[in-house]
Amino acid sequence: MDNEKHNHLLFAGDPHGCFDNLIYAVHKYRPAAVVMLGDYNLEMPLENYLQAVIGMTQIYWIPGNHDFDSQAEYENLYHSAFGDNNLHLKVIEVGGLRIAGLGGIFLGRVWRPGKEPKWPNRESWLACKSRSVKKMPLHIKHAIWHHEFEWMKANIKADILVTHEAPSCHRFGFAVIDELAHAIGAKQVFHGHHHEDYRTRLQNGLAVNGVAMGGVVNLAGEIFT
Fold first, then answer.
1. Which molecular function term from Gene Ontology is one that the record holds (predicted)?
2. Number of folded domains that form the chain
3. Neighbouring residues of 89: CB distance < 8 A, sequence distance ≥ 6
4. pLDDT averages per 10-residue partition of the chain, 225 residues
5. Domain for residue 38, yes or no?
């Protein structure tokens, strides 16, 4: 695969409010699509940060944990012009490649792999709360839920998995991410969250790419910024 094909799809690490590297990479490489890996820390709607590249490429995203730090940050992402481009628990196809997304992080109060899930589903969590609790609070909303994770394993097929959490190769990663990638047929994983650029390959052949804070990589895991 040549460089032009590699650059057809870019992956952007946690911006934390700064999108300069992503904008630069889109202008330089003109990818068909960009997938952002969470933690945007938006003080205004997402489209305000990306005005310089709107119309130049498709823009997709998964949520990270910091996108739930405040109601404003949540709304600036989920209610933005790109609100429908959330890849969490979904699949898109770009250039013949299917890309699936898993946003959020594992929370012990909901489900931490290696232990039994605390709740069978979101509805059961709400059912155990007082009548005054009408919706799930933000500090729970960003959790990865076991029933949704299992649904994804059983129902989704993709070539690439994008996650906020890391697979087992990272010292703070989780083997269940490896298992998910295997279950859906993915050959590559791109993840954010830990702000580290690295490339490795697991024993089962799965290629893993960590993307640094504000970093941008292509399909080969090559670092642009």
1. hydrolase activity
2. 1
3. 101, 102, 148, 151, 152, 156
4. 74 97 96 98 98 97 97 98 98 96 97 95 88 84 96 98 98 98 98 97 94 95 76
5. yes
